[in-house]
Specification:
This protein has 307 residues and is mainly alpha-helical. It contains 13 helices and three strands; from the N terminus they run αααααααβββαααααα. Strands 1-2-3 form a three-stranded antiparallel sheet, with no helix packed on it. A hairpin with a 5-residue loop joins β2 and β3. The termini are far apart.
Length: 307
């Protein structure tokens, strides 16, 4: 039986096919899938407001995308616009591969230039002093848990999303490693230092003794034993970094940047840092070399008599 689909239904159906493709075939993280979905929803809403009516992706032109870029640039940063354009490139490339369109309207789009920002870090000496200060963290479950959050992020360089999903079974205290599920469901093993290994042991024992009713197997939990969530971790990090830093950015990613920068400054191989961070390619890791160079320049200016 022939079923006639409206233009809106066709667009929605093809969007669903693309989302399923990146979710199940490409195995993108839930966060990335959600971002792609949001970008495409925004794009189609723009196309159909106020008078344009797009009934099939094949009707979308280069000019449609250019108009959306101009619209976005009025209140978005170049970096944010570039991310949305990258979504369109991936979407149209998929449609072209599937034979649903005959040309890619995003292929000739030039991304706006964005300013290169160096990673924001905190001084590792100040961070170490904070973590070694027994008066900062309480000796109850909350205090131990908060310290573990900072120690884990700084000691392993894992992402916020990776920490939230880290399970107790992923911890091997005997071997001194943790198993992390990163982007695109790629697993990696990260060594942990003695202090973190000791803290993990204490925390797991205390967590078990709390006898939480839901008995979550996720490593980091709330004061009531529920699974931690990104905002919860963010607020913990922001609270304690406020003690040692006046910079505006006080996020878990700052600790990831600090981890990588500290390793590089201590002579670690860039490829090794890449593997520890779970980067897909070396270019993402090379940003830390610029950070290191800027630090050397700063030291030079302060110390050299002719600087």
């Amino acid at each position: 039986m022939y079923i006639h689909l409206s233009g809106v239904q066709v667009v929605f159906m093809l969007l669903e096919r693309f989302i399923q493709y990146i979710q199940y075939e490409k195995r993108y993280s839930p966060h990335t899938v959600s971002a792609y979905q949001s970008d495409l929803d925004q794009f189609y809403k723009f196309l159909n407001y106020p008078e344009q009516t797009i009934t099939h992706p094949s009707e979308i032109t280069y000019q449609h995308i250019r108009n959306w870029m101009v619209h976005l640039m009025s209140d978005k940063t170049a970096r944010s616009v570039n991310r949305k354009i990258a979504t369109l490139r991936k979407y149209f490339k998929f449609l072209l591969r599937e034979g649903l369109i005959t040309n890619n309207p995003a292929s000739k789009i030039q991304s706006p230039k964005s300013l290169k920002h160096l990673p924001v870090v905190v001084e590792d000496t100040k961070l170490n002093a904070l973590l070694n200060d027994n008066s900062v963290f309480g000796d109850d479950f909350e205090g131990l848990r908060d310290k573990l959050v900072l120690e884990t992020l700084f000691g392993t360089g894992i992402r916020l999303a990776e920490l939230v999903t880290l399970k107790e079974k992923d911890i091997d205290i005997y071997e001194g490693t943790i198993k992390v599920l990163g982007k695109r469901n790629k697993e990696r093993i990260i060594p942990i230092n003695y202090e973190l290994k000791k803290l993990l042991g204490e925390y797991l024992d205390l967590k078990k003794s709390e006898n939480f009713s839901n008995n979550s197997l996720t490593l980091i939990v709330t004061n009531k034993g529920a699974e931690a969530y990104p905002k919860f971790i963010y607020l913990i990090v922001k609270k304690y970094l406020s003690y040692i830093s006046t910079q505006n950015k006080k996020s878990p990613h700052v600790l990831r940047h600090t981890f990588a920068t500290s390793l590089l400054n201590s002579g670690a191989d860039l490829n090794a840092i890449k593997e520890l961070l779970g980067h897909a390619n070396l270019s993402a890791t090379q940003v830390y070399t610029h950070s290191s160079v800027e630090r050397l320049k700063s030291i030079y200016k302060q110390a050299h008599p002719k600087a």
